[in-house]
Design brief:
Layout: H1 2-46, H2 58-72, H3 78-95, H4 102-127, H5 134-137, E1 144-150, E2 153-157, E3 165-171, E4 174-178, E5 187-195, E6 198-202, E7 208-216, E8 219-222, E9 237-245, E10 248-252
Parallel strand pairs: 1-3, 2-4, 3-5, 4-6, 5-9, 6-10, 7-9, 8-10
Length: 255
C-alpha cells in the first residue's frame, strides 16, 4: 500500500511538472508571436497604412501581458485577469468605443479588480485540481509563504524548518519576504507575479537560486555577496517561477 501511494505521489508530481513545462513553452511561443505581430503592425504603420493607435499602446501591452500570464498559469492566475481587465477598460475609454466619465474610471477599475479577486478565491480555486491536494491541505501555514497585494505592500519574515515554497502576486504593489531563518530539503519553489510592482527576497548567501521568471519591461537582480558553498553538503536550491511586467525582483542577504 505504501509503495502504491508513493508511486501515485511521484506520478502526480511528474504530471504537474510536465504541465508546467508545457504551459511555459506555450507562453514563450505566445510572446514570440506577439512580438512578431507588433513588428508587423509598426511596419504597416510606417508604410502609411492606418493602424488604430490603441493597438500599439501600453494599454494593449497590458492585455497581451495578461494573456501570456494566463497561458503560463493555465488560466488560474488573478494577476492575468486583472491586467487584461485594466487594459480593456483603458482601451475602451481612450478609443471611444464606450464612454466612461474620468471621475468614475478608477472606482470602476477597483470594483472590477475586487470582483476578479473574489472569483479567483471562490470559483477558480474550487476548480483547481491541486487545491484539495493533501500535501497542501495539511500544510502548516509557516511552511508556505503567500501574499497578494493590490495598491499596497506586505512584509513577512518566515521561520520554518520544512519550507515548501510560496506564491506571491503583486499588482501595483510589492512585498519584502525574509527567508533567512528558513530551512528545507533539496529544492523549494516560489511562484511570483509582479505587475507594476516588485518583490524583495532576503535569502542566505549560500543558497543557489534558479530563475525561471519571464520579465517584460522588468528586471531580476541578485545582490547577495558570493560565497563558497560547503562541498560536503548539497546547496539549497530555490526555484523562482512566474512573470514580472513593469516591475522587478531583487534578492539580497541583508538580514
Amino acid at each position: 500500500m505504501a509503495n502504491k501511494e508513493e508511486f501515485k505521489t511521484k506520478t502526480d508530481v511528474n504530471v504537474e511538472k510536465e504541465d508546467w513545462q508545457k504551459h511555459r513553452r506555450l507562453s514563450k511561443i505566445t510572446i514570440g508571436i506577439l512580438v512578431i505581430a507588433t513588428g508587423i503592425l509598426v511596419l504597416l504603420r510606417q508604410t502609411g497604412i492606418y493602424i488604430p493607435h490603441w493597438l500599439l499602446s501600453w494599454r494593449m501591452l497590458l492585455v497581451a501581458a495578461g494573456f501570456v500570464i494566463l497561458i503560463k498559469h493555465n488560466f488560474k492566475n488573478t494577476a492575468g485577469y486583472i491586467m487584461m481587465f485594466l487594459g480593456l477598460v483603458f482601451i475602451l475609454k481612450t478609443s471611444g468605443f464606450v464612454w466612461i466619465n474620468s471621475d468614475f474610471l478608477w472606482p470602476i477599475v477597483i470594483i472590477g479588480v475586487g470582483i476578479l479577486i473574489l472569483a479567483k478565491n471562490t470559483i477558480l480555486d474550487s476548480k483547481n485540481k491541486y487545491s484539495s491536494n493533501t500535501s497542501f491541505k495539511d500544510l502548516d501555514a509557516d511552511d508556505f509563504v503567500s501574499a497578494e497585494t493590490f495598491f499596497g505592500g506586505v512584509t513577512k519574515k518566515v521561520v520554518s524548518k520544512n519550507f515548501k515554497g510560496g506564491s506571491l502576486t503583486h499588482v501595483f504593489g510589492g512585498s519584502k519576504i525574509n527567508l533567512m531563518r528558513v530551512d528545507f530539503k533539496d529544492k523549494a519553489v516560489i511562484d511570483i507575479t509582479c505587475v507594476f510592482g516588485g518583490s524583495t527576497l532576503t535569502l542566505p548567501a549560500d543558497w543557489k537560486v534558479k530563475s525561471d521568471v519571464t520579465t517584460i519591461f522588468g528586471g531580476f537582480e541578485d545582490k547577495r555577496a558570493t560565497v563558497l558553498a560547503d562541498t560536503a553538503e548539497e546547496p539549497k536550491v530555490l526555484i523562482l517561477k512566474g512573470i514580472c511586467v513593469f516591475g522587478g525582483i531583487e534578492i539580497n542577504n541583508y538580514d
